[in-house]
Amino acid sequence: MIDIVATTFGFFPRPPEADQDATDLVRDAQRAAGLDRIVSGQLDWVDHLASPLLAADGVRTGAPSPWSDTDVTYRIPVVTEPISMSDALAPDATALTDVPVQRRQVVLPGPYTLCSLCEDEYYGDDAALLDALASELATAVAGLPPVATVAILEPALGTTPPDDGLDARASDAIDDVSASTDASVVVHVPDGAVTEKVYAHLMDAAFDALGVDLVADHDGWLFLVNEYGTTDDIALGVVDAHDESVESPSLLADRVAWWNENTPVAEFETVYVTPTDAMAALSWGSVSGKLSALGGVRDAAPR
């Protein structure tokens, strides 16, 4: 029987009633919704996935830039010296100290996505910068307290695919980060399927669960998985992170069932049910409803 695990990729909006205890409210909302994994919510990551790098040594803060095709902006990390990210993820993990280890999940940017967000004034080429970012992320992850799941977000694999040569290194970089922890590792790519070449390289990396966006491009991901195989576990983005409408648990369960019925090449051991992306642009009321829907998927799933 498939184990359904309800979780998110963080980046919550700040609850309207929140003050200094905002992170506590976010954690409590996840618990109340019945989620199996709890995240800190990344409320202080004002520069989205660039935030941990902007807190690192060897990096200065550059000009604001739009995040992909959204209204969100982030400040560009400008790499001026050797990067040191050893403590960059510590605040995220510290926020989970009162959560049982088996329910803790940390969220981090993927090395290729970080590379794509940077301006490099030190390493001299993308390959060297990517290698350095992978090494530093691996060190940061290895230094975290025990967690159940590490979620690596790699949107740039889909939005700005790596060139020839760098695509294999992007896979190696994920491999390095994944190897640095005993936790289960999910690598999620929001907003559409990657190219066949990027996917083939991604499958060379060793991690536990591929994360796919079933709202933006279910057919594209379905083709890749059936054509090239996939990980033993899967993370299905079944909640639309870009729409205020709140889905029902039964609709989400139907999306999970559709995926399982249409992937005859795979027999998944664990299915993570997740949003398609960060939910920071949504209202708190919408996010609360979507959390409850995710928490209800297991009970709504066909027996």
Beta content comes to 15-25%
As for the number of domains, it is 1
Taking strands numbered 1, 2, ... along the chain, how are they ordered across the largest sheet? 1-10-9-8-7-6-4
- H/E element string? EHHEEHEHEHEHHEHEHEHEHH
Q: In which range does the helix fraction lie?
A: 25-40%
Report the radius of gyration as a whole number of Å.
18 Å
Helix/strand/pairing category: alpha/beta
Mean pLDDT: 94
The shape is: globular
CATH class: Alpha Beta
Q: Oligomeric status of the shown chains?
A: single chain
The major β-sheet equals: 7 strands, parallel
Descriptive report:
It is a single chain. 37% of the residues lie in helices and 20% in strands. With 303 residues, the protein is of the alpha/beta class. It has one domain: TIM Barrel, CATH 3.20.20.210. The strands form two sheets. The protein has a seven-stranded parallel β-sheet. Strand 7 (184-188), helix 8 (196-202) and strand 8 (209-213) form a beta-alpha-beta unit. Helix 4 (111-117) crosses helix 5 (126-142), helix 5 (126-142) packs parallel to helix 7 (166-178) and helix 7 packs parallel to helix 8. The chain starts with a strand and ends with a helix.
What's this entry about, in short?
By secondary structure, the chain is of the alpha/beta class. Helices cover 37% and strands 20% of the residues.
What order do the helices and strands come in, and which of them pair?
Layout: E1 3-6, H1 22-33, H2 51-54, E2 57-66, E3 73-84, H3 90-94, E4 105-109, H4 111-117, E5 119-120, H5 126-142, E6 149-153, H6 156-159, H7 166-178, E7 184-188, H8 196-202, E8 209-213, H9 214-228, E9 233-239, H10 249-261, E10 270-275, H11 284-295, H12 297-300
Parallel strand pairs: 1-10, 3-5, 4-6, 6-7, 7-8, 8-9, 9-10
Antiparallel strand pairs: 2-3
